[in-house]
Specification:
alpha+beta; three-stranded antiparallel β-sheet; two-stranded antiparallel sheet; 7 helices; 16% strand
């Protein structure tokens, strides 16, 4: 069983962790899973870390690594939360730079990539995307963009859920 990640509850389902017999670059153990998402560190690594070395922070401490490059973090978010998300939580791959979302003074939980079909179940997240896109596009382009979202293609939306109030959030990314 994988370690728990409050801010990324199912990294296996999101594709950030894969079943693998490779050994962890830090602990040297083959635990059956490896992290395949982004790693920001100075060293070039031959292997990837296991989820356990991410969860306990040992990999990040040894390699001065981060799994998510956080920016636009609200001032109400604690340094502890920033540390947990950036250094002790699996990140995720996106078309450009991944972006972590925040709500209610906390980091939101990453649920995975979604397309228009999956977003239909999350009107609050769809409305967030619509609002964000409407700041630069005319209304008909916004709706075309929303319906073009593809979980496995381009453009893609990334779904989050507020850990405090349950609101669903999303942002979209494309090449």
């Amino acid at each position: 069983m994988l370690p728990g990640f409050a801010y990324h509850p199912d990294p296996l389902a999101t594709g950030s962790v894969k079943v693998s017999e490779s050994t962890c670059v830090y602990c040297g153990e083959a635990r059956g899973y490896t992290y395949v998402g982004p790693v920001f560190c100075a060293e070039s690594l031959g292997n990837r870390p296991c989820p356990w070395c991410i969860a306990d922070g040992s990999f990040a401490a040894r390699y001065e690594a981060e799994f998510t490059d956080l920016y636009d973090v609200p001032s109400t978010v604690s340094m502890e939360t920033i540390e947990i998300i950036s250094r002790r939580t699996p990140g995720f791959s996106s078309w450009q730079d991944g972006r972590w979302l925040f709500h209610c003074g906390d980091g939101a939980a990453f649920l995975g990539p979604v397309g228009a079909r999956e977003l239909a179940a999350f009107p609050d997240a769809t409305e967030m995307l619509r609002h964000e896109a409407s700041e630069g596009w005319p209304p008909n382009h916004v709706e075309d963009f929303i319906t073009a979202l593809d979980k496995d293609g381009d453009p893609t939306a990334y779904l989050f859920r507020c850990r405090k109030c349950g609101t669903h959030l999303a942002y979209a990314d494309y090449t």
